[in-house]
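name: query_chain
kind: protein
chains: 1
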Amino acid sequence: MTILVTGGAGFIGSNFVYDWLADRDEAVVNLDLLTYAGNRWNLNGLLDEPKHVFIHGSIGDAGLISSLLDQYRPRAIINFAAESHVDRSIAGPAQFITTNIIDLFQLLECVRSYTKQLGESNRDAFRFLQVSTDEVYGSLGADEPAFSETRRFEPNSPYSASKAAGDHLVRAWHHTYGINVLTTNCSNNYGPFQFPEKLIPLIISNALSGKNLPVYGDGKQVRDWLYVGDHCSAIIRVLDEGIPGKTYNIGGQCEKENIDVVRTLCQLLDELQPRSDGRSYAEQISFVKDRPGHDRRYAVDTTRVEAEIGWRPSETFESGLRKTVDWYLKNANWLDHVRSGAYREWIDAQYGAAK
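structure:
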């Protein structure tokens, strides 16, 4: 048996591949375009793994996808492939429309042709799992209840709008063409291999480099933080036990203001790798101009995934964050490798004075 993982050299995808291969006998065909946030360094631990096959390519390449489906005959596809950074979507939305909508459409069409060729039992057993985001639901007020799966979509950024469109396509291909799809909408992930444009690895990277720690606006934006290992375990459970056509929200049950996340990171770094001058990394915090249309609060209601599948996060924010900081401290070579000239140019353009 084989599964096809798309975007498996990125942050969440690579963590999923490692976790899957550690627990399952099924092989993984790993397709990734290797854009700036997906790189082969994330997969160095799998170089001698016979159950892992890496393919360089795009989910929008219909010829490639069709040939992979014909050759490997996967019983499931887990789609992590996406453009995922809000700031980049504001600066350049076109690539988000291409990857998250048009390329996803091509992938779904290939899946539709593939499942037509399967026998009835294999067609019934096949699953297509779309990994999505809580940002499709929009923004919450301070006292509003957390996002449930029945909340209407109100995306506020090009990124979240493109993901919402993709979720609609996945739903339509289930109801119209009978493909057994599952969708997961997760909260903010953090953990190993996260590209250092996102808040937590950016703060770690800048702190260790002696740079300012940029915080948007007043820093009081609230996010529900989910350790990536918990997210991966939830995806596996949904793949195994989820009901086709359903959406499952996955969250860490851990709402934190961004400024509190940054301060906690500073405290951990003060403990684990103190500054040479003995002062706190918190002195490097710098508030910068808020980004356009910045959602104020996300929170995820995980009642469905808990009740129907029995999944709950195993990491607390404190334990997950400590594991994350420890990983970045022990993997300085990885961090240096991914902080390319293109990355530095992006950070300079995005945060300017915060440098």
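note: The CA atoms of residues 31 and 55 lie 5 Å apart.
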